[in-house]
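Hi F.,

I've been meaning to write this up properly since the lab meeting, where we talked about keeping a consistent format for the predictions we share between groups. The idea is simple: the sequence comes first, exactly as it goes in, then the C-alpha cells exactly as they come out, then a line or two of notes. No screenshots and no reformatting. I'm using this chain as the first example so we have something concrete to point to.
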Amino acid sequence: MWIMKIKSNKMKKLLFALFFLVNVSCFSQTIYNVILEQIAVGDVNGPEAIAFDGNGLMYTANEDGRIIVLNRDGSNPQDYAQTGGRPLGLKFDSQGNLIVADAFQGLLSIDTTGQITVLSTSFAGVPFMLTDDLDIGSDGTIYFSDASSLNSLGNHTNDWGQPNGRLLSYNPNTDVTNLLLDNLYFANGVALSHDESYLLVNESAVNHVRRYWLTGPNSGQTDVFSNVNQFQGLPDNITYNDDSLFWVATFFGPVIALDNNGQIVYQLNFNSNLLTENTSAIQYNDTLYLGTLHDSLIGKIPIPTEILLSNTEKISQKSEFTIYPNPTNENITISVNNHNGNINTEVYDIIGNRIQTTNKTTISLRDYSKGIYILKVAYGDRVEEVKVIKE
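Output, unedited:
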C-alpha cells in the first residue's frame, strides 16, 4: 500500500474525472453471475424466440419451422403449427393470435386453431428477405424488422457491414405495411417503450440499440438509444419486461438490462458452455427464458432478488425520467412523467467542472465541444445522473 500527496490541480482534476466516471459506471451497471438451467433438452431445435400466452404456456420457434407449445419447466412439448420457414420472432396479440416474424415466409398470424394467415411479405415491391422480430402496440399495430432486403438467412453474413435492414409497421385493420426506417445494419430485435412513445430496434452489425420516436416533438426521428459493444457480443433480440427494463440478449455474451434512458444497469453472466448462442431473453414473473439459434434446449435463469426489489421500488415511485436524443448534436430534452414540480439540472464536463446550471427542460450543448458530459438532474426527492454524448 502506498500513498501519494497530490499537489497538482491538473492531476486532481484527472483523478476526480476517473473517480466520477467509475462511480457513474457503478451507478449504471451491476454485474451478477447467475446459474443457467437447461430445459426442454432434445425437445426443441434452435428455439430462437419465445412467447407466453395468457395461461402462462410457453411457445417457441424451431429451426425446422415448427412452433412448439410446452410448460414453463420445459415439459410436455407439443407441436402447435408448422410455418414451412424459419420463425424468428413470436408475440401474442390481444385476440390471442400468435404473430410470427418468419425469415422466409414474412409476417404471419396463427389463430388459436393453428390456422396460418400471411399478413405481409414485402414493401414497395421489395420482398422481406429476412423477417426477424416484432412487437405489438396497444392499438394492434405490428412493428417488425426485416434484417436484410438483399440476403436471406442462408447467406446473411454477406450483409455484415451493409445497411440493408428495415424497420416496418403493419396495420391489421387496413392491411397496410409502412416503412419506418431503412439503411439499418442488420435490423434485429424490436421492442416498444412503456408508453409506446418510441420503438427500439437492434442493429446487430454495429452493436447499436436504435430508437425511433413514434410520438412527441421528435416523432419520426431516430437516435442511438444504447451502445452495447463493450460486451464483445452482438445485440440480438430485445424485450420489455412491462416494468422498467429492456432485456437484451447478446449473441456471444451475457444478458444485459437497459433502463428507460438506455443506460446499462445490469449484466447477467452465465456459463456460455450451457447455451452457446444467446438470441432472446424473455421475462415471465421472476425468471428469464433464453432462446438460442442452434442449441437443442432453452435456457432458464432466475432474476436476482435485488433486481426484482429495485424494479418494484422504481415502479412504486410512478415517475418516469427520460432524456433525448442521446447522443445529440446540440440539445438534450429532459422529461419526467407524473411530476409537476421544478426540474433542476447541473451539467459537468468529463473532468468534473460544472459548466451549466439550469431549470429548463431543454438544455443546449451547442457551445461545447464534442465529447462526454454528465447531467445531474434533481426533481422531487430524486437525483438522476446520466452520461450524455455530444457528437
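Notes:
Residues 96 and 112 are 7 Å apart (CA to CA).
The radius of gyration is 22 Å.

If this format works for you, I'll send the rest the same way.

G.
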